[in-house]
Amino acid sequence: MSDSQGENTLTTRSPEGPSRVGGGATTAPSPARRARRGPDWRKRAEIALLSGPAVLLFLSFVIFPVVMAAYYGFYRWKGFGPPTDFVGLDNYLTIFRDSTFHDALLHNGFIVVASLVLQGPAAVALALLLNQRMRGRSVIRVLIFVPYVVSEVIVGTGWSLMLRTTGAFNDVLDKIGLDALTVDWLADPDVAIWSLMMIITWKYIGFAVILFLAGLQSIPEELFEAASIDGASYWQIQRRITLPLLGPTIRIWAFLSIIGSLQLFDLVYIIWGQYVAATAGTSTMATYMVVNGRNAGNYGFGNAVAVVLFVISLVIALVYQRYVLRRDTEGALTEGKKR
Amino acid sequence: MSASAVAVPPLPAERPSRRRRDGGRLGRSGPMTYLIAFFFVGICIGPVAYIVIGGFRSNSQIILSPSGFPDPWEVGNYASVLTSGIFWRQMGNSAIAAVATTAGVVVLGVMASYVLARYHFRGRTALYSLFAAGLMFPMTVAITPLYILVRELGLMNSLAGIILPQIAFALPVTIIILVPFLRAIPKELEEAAAIDGASRLGFFFRMVVPLSVPGVITVGILAFVASWNSYMLPLFILNDETSYTLPLGVQAFAAQYSVDTARVLAFTSLSMIPALIFFSLFERRIVGGLTGAVKG
Predict the structure, then answer these.
(1) Distance, in angstroms, between B147 CA and closest chain A CA?
(2) Burial class, B7, CB count within 10 angstroms (exposed 0-12 / middle 13-18 / buried 19+)
(3) B128 — contact with chain A (CB < 8 Å)?
(4) Which residue of A has its CA nearest to B229?
(5) A175 with B67: CB under 8 angstroms?
(6) B202 close to A7: Cβ distance less than 8 angstroms
(7) Nearest Cα to Cα of residue A66 among A307, A262, A332
């Protein structure tokens, strides 16, 4: 890129020039740089050239389908040709009256709460433990992260083989004399959702631990020094300093966990399949959507379920951000948006 | 701030406080710590080991003792999977999809992030917010219209039908990671390049692209692993066994050979090996990338 016209345009033609000189000197880049660059049309062409492909792809494969989901949701539609049978809110009424959907919603709620309760404290404890100076720490970190990296299909296939009545899990219980505990882990409606929680915890707790470890490492050492000089014990330091300062990380993790639990699909669909999930008591809104939408050929209805799922997630996300995350993200998020 | 860096040997005067800090922060790792850590690692690795080791057993061994060790070790299951065309076919499909997705995400993501990080124009905030809002739209919500869109485009049963949406859905995270990264490139560097006669595009190709390599590796790994493990989108788009990626292949294989547990285990464990190798090579980056992504 030979560029001689940079010299020619040492003017303030850039529309942003004057206002920036007057205004926020902290956020704006140095005016000198701006003035030296090419003319306005050239800048626009560069912007279009560089961001165009990403914007185009994003609009067509993310935004457009999401908008279409809202649109299709008002139709009874088998998925071929343009939707014509406008049914208004009928799909939504059907969803809210369907006890199968209520069950799925309930399961999602349970998974949200149980994930937080089961994973959160355990992960914090493990992170504190692993944050100590010990041999093989880096190897341990890799190993506990393995379940997170292994795909849902492999996790689902492996665990369903282990948990079936004649599987390894019951066999181990038998061998260690706990044969009273052997049950049908996957089909028994009283047990299945706990089996699901066990698998979810196993798969995702490593992620929480790694996240918390990173959070622990960002706490300035001076605080610990000061506290120990003042005579604080190990436990006092953890309770009064570490946990409060780990707060932002915990809250972000909880946010990710909640959203993930609401959207849960893969593991349930792989292990229980489309027919068994509802009777085993592990169906989620997402499996309900796929089973009653595409698999049943009711595309309009499936989209309505997607909208309900999205709105529920969005409301929870907004409430959470408004009341829980706000103080943490004030710096990070608003900085990006204010510009 | 923390001038007393860890690597620097401490001044004599600092020593006492250092020792105490270690006591306060890091605690003393007694045998109990090792025991718990060992136990936890065992739980994490156990099921994976079960799959891998189970592949070395025969079906009769598995029926007689579901949780036992191979006796004798059978390599037949692995051999039969490794010599089957369908496994390699699906492995190839997964590799193509993952590599193409990664390349697309990286190229489009760096270009768009560069614009968002270093150009000033009206609508930039809106554009950034649009991509950021993409984080709120998981594929689950859009999957049905996405399926219809891909069908209308004639991309059913083709890898392009999963690659394009995967790139699009990976862009928000990519941009959110890369924009601060590119913004952090010192302005002096850009000014120096401009003085030396580089245009903004010249600066992009000569300076930004090389300097953004660490960030790019992070987002590239995230995109690769996500694509390798992707299940829902292929489930909708790929209906033909020859176009399956490995996750669908594993599921189909498990359904088809449900009585041949040993071979299912072998197939499953072979299909996770590439992701595990990839992960262990780039473990630091993945972990760093995830934590960086979360912190915004």
Answers:
(1) 9
(2) exposed
(3) yes
(4) A151
(5) yes
(6) no
(7) A307
Among A30, A256, A299, the residue with its CB nearest the CB of B144 is A299
Q: Confirm or reject contact between B140 and chain A (CB < 8 A).
A: yes
Instruction: Give me the domains of chain A, ranges plus CATH numbers.
Output: 96-338 (1.10.3720.10)
Alpha helices in chain B (DSSP H): 15-21, 31-54, 59-64, 76-82, 85-118, 124-133, 139-152, 160-183, 187-195, 200-203, 209-211, 213-229, 232-237, 246-256, 261-281, 283-295
Map residue B112 onto helix, strand or coil.
Answer: helix
Domain positions in chain B are 99-245+284-295
A150–B17: do the CB atoms touch at under 8 Å? Answer: no
Structure tokens at A322: 């408004």
Q: Of the candidates A62, A143, A336, which has its C-beta nearest B41's C-beta?
A: A143
pLDDT of A269 strictly over 70: yes
Q: Which of B148, B142, B144 is nearest to B168 (CA)?
A: B142
Closest B-chain CA to A145: B44
> How far is Cα of residue B173 from the mean position of the Cα atoms in its chain?
12
pLDDT tens for each residue of B214-265: 778 878 888 888 888 888 899 989 988 888 988 898 888 888 887 888 888 8
Instruction: Select the residue from B6, B20, B44, B135 to test the A interface by mutation, using most A Cβ atoms within 10 A.
Output: B44
B 78-97 → A contacts, CB under 8 A: none
CA distance B234 to B212: 31
Q: Give how far A226 is from chain B: nearest CA, Å.
A: 8
CB contact under 8 A, A263 and B138: yes
The residues, any chain, with a CB within 8 Å of residue A258's CB and separated by 6 or more, are A112, A115, A116, A316, A317, A320
Whether residues B290 and A47 touch (CB distance < 8 A) is answered with no
Q: Which of A6, A253, A309 sits opposite B194 (nearest CB)?
A: A6
Q: What is the pLDDT of residue A38?
A: 54
CATH T-level assignment (fold) for domain B99-245+284-295: MetI-like fold (1.10.3720)
Its pTM stands at 0.80
Segment A24-53, tens digit of pLDDT:
334 444 444 444 455 677 778 888 888 888
B4 DSSP 8-state letter: S
User: What was the ipTM of the complex prediction?
Assistant: 0.79
Which residue do the tokens 């020859």 mark? B242
C-alpha closest to that of B118 among B54, B199, B50: B199
